């Protein structure tokens, strides 16, 4: 079984914000391929959907914890389903990448991302596949606190086109990882 988890914050307040791009990408992929609707599974503190893709059993998860507690939900799922770390894909926003960029990485530091810090803290490893979706605005000044506010803002009308394109690209990356492997996806998209 392969677990794909989309990071973000739960609730209407955080829908369609940059910090929720991982969650949004997984939601869009679930809709595209017609997996079962997401259902709240309280024992995992997550919305869960199941299906198969390329003859592989897939479990999709959207933690209903806040971003900085993502590891708590993920740890429960990994433990219950005995998910191998090599079968884990985490989709998340990344302030180190320009808005609209998508990159794949493995065994990489968290760069201060609170959701990833939580996951690495629970799993005791960073050796899992990550799909990183860029959220850094062009005018961002390194060290600025404005980024914290920006990632929690709703997309503007002009940004919706960028979001649609990056979600489409993220879905292509997810599918290539599942059809081929993360290394081939890295070679193509990085």
Q: What features would you describe in this structure?
A:
It is a single chain. With 190 residues, the protein is of the alpha/beta class. The protein has a single domain, classed as 3-Layer(aba) Sandwich (Rossmann fold), CATH 3.40.50.1470. It contains 6 helices and 7 strands. A 7-stranded mixed β-sheet has the order 2-3-4-1-5-7-6, sandwiched between helices.
List keywords for this structure.
alpha/beta, Rossmann fold, 6 helices, 38% helix, 7 strands, tRNA binding, 190 residues, seven-stranded mixed beta sheet
Kindly summarize this structure in a few lines.
InterPro entries: Pept_tRNA_hydro, Pept_tRNA_hydro_sf. With 190 residues, this protein is an alpha/beta fold. It is built from six helices and seven strands, in the order βαβββαββαβααα.
Net shape:
globular
Number of DSSP helical runs? 6
Biggest sheet: strand arrangement: 2-3-4-1-5-7-6
Number of domains: 1
Number of strands: 7
Provide the gyration radius in Å: 15 Å
Helix content: 25-40%
The rounded distance between the terminal residues' Cα atoms is: 26 Å
What is the H/E order? EHEEEHEEHEHHH
CATH architecture, please? 3-Layer(aba) Sandwich
Could you say what the CATH topology is called? Rossmann fold
As a percent range, the share of strand residues is: 25-35%
Structural class: alpha/beta
CATH classification, class level: Alpha Beta
**Which spans of ≥5 residues are poorly predicted at pLDDT below 50?**
none
Protein name: Peptidyl-tRNA hydrolase
GO cellular component, one term: cytoplasm
EC number: 3.1.1.29
Site (Discriminates between blocked and unblocked aminoacyl-tRNA): 9
